[in-house]
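Possible regression after last week's pipeline update?

I re-ran a chain I had predicted before the update to compare outputs. Posting the input and the new output here so someone can diff against the archived version. Not blocking, just want to make sure nothing changed silently.
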Amino acid sequence: MTATWTAMVARAYDHPRPAVRFGGATWSGHELLDRAAGAADWLDALGCAPGRPVPALVATSAEALALVIGGAGSGHPLAPLGVRMAPPEIAAVVKALGAPLVVAQAGFAELGLTVAELTGCGVAILPELAELPASGRELAAAPDDIAAVLHTSGTTGVPKAVPMPQWRLAARARVNGALCELDPSSFYGGSSPFHHIAGLGNLAVALAAGATVTGLPRFTTEGWALLRDMGATHTSMVPAMLEMLLAAGQAHQPRLRVLQYGGAPVRPETLRRTYGAMPGVRMLNMFGQTEGSPLSVLTPDDHREAVAGRPELLLSVGRAAPGVELRIGADAGPDGVGEVLGRADHLFRVDDEGWLHSGDLGRIAADGYLYLSGRRNDMIIRGGENVHPLEVETVLAAHPAVADAAVVGRPDDRLGQTVVAFVVPADPAAPPDPDALRTYARDRLSGFKVPARWCFVADLPRNANGKIVRSRLREP
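New output (post-update):
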């Protein structure tokens, strides 16, 4: 079994067939590896210390993929940064890495210079890799070498670095590749930000499988049409994107085999409409995080079963992924809710006993399905009772008049905290009646979990990774 991610990629693209397609340009497997070798030589010439992460301002592109492959195979692990973050936010991450320089694609040169000024480090602009001289260099790495570094979303502070050792990334590529049925005949099209686990994390899996790869700078209906025209067979998104496509009548994608999603549950009606637009598609919900993914999986068979009569399965994130030992921590309450812990080779940040402490709260039902309740730091304590925001949000988001929802706790003299809901109406001109929503929630939740106040908003504040920033939710 291949011990490193670099070896998997080198073996997968030792051929003259198309490997990456961006815009009007196509690189063969040999060209991708040649340009990755050129990127490795260029990183060497910058004087980067072996093993030290190289912060990079890059977007999804053939050049960015070659730079990651070259960095992983030369001891210069790339650490892609969010190019939509504010310069001071990027500077804080660069300082935490202790990096002497920042690499930037030409399109982000100005941003790179600003970050360099804020941090006092240097900046290097990525050249046209196709114009670098061919070195014939063979990329290689040891199992414990770091292949790349991703960062958490930073919803509770400065994003934290998550190094991805070669052997663990190789294990993740095998697990995810099998679940997504990726192979050299596949064509993966991504649309998540490159610095995100759903961006580079999924692209790394597709590369290890030898799939043809493309990507979009951001998700749009026009970009989806482009993936359709190119013949993409695999992609990933969040349910809100899927609903946008269905509303626009653009969801049909005849060649799509696997649609992976995450970040939120999919509504039963949305799933039925998706199967109508893409009859043969296999739906897959993977639960995980930057520190390790997947922990659990809602399989294609689970989705078909949900449509056939078990819609409650869609409120779960499935059962333990292959090779994962899943359990709830010792902090579990009488309702069985506690911190979700996982142990497996493909998880990146683990304790001395190999357990990843997810920070997510949830319970495991008798049939093995995992139901999430929210993040530990988001918990609301109302009159001594614990209210998990995600549980309430999942119920509200299933209401046909609700497009999106977020729940927070607010100080209350009598109860300590009270529950407040922020709702994005499906029809802004006709928001749902609060009493109707309250009745709907009470039919599905314990009374103490039902929001006491309702705020209707045009959208919810999210960070660059699409996660709700609860601290920015303000009542009128």
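Follow-up from reviewer: compared with the archived run. The domain at 1-164 is CATH 3.40.50.980 (Rossmann fold). Marking as no regression found.
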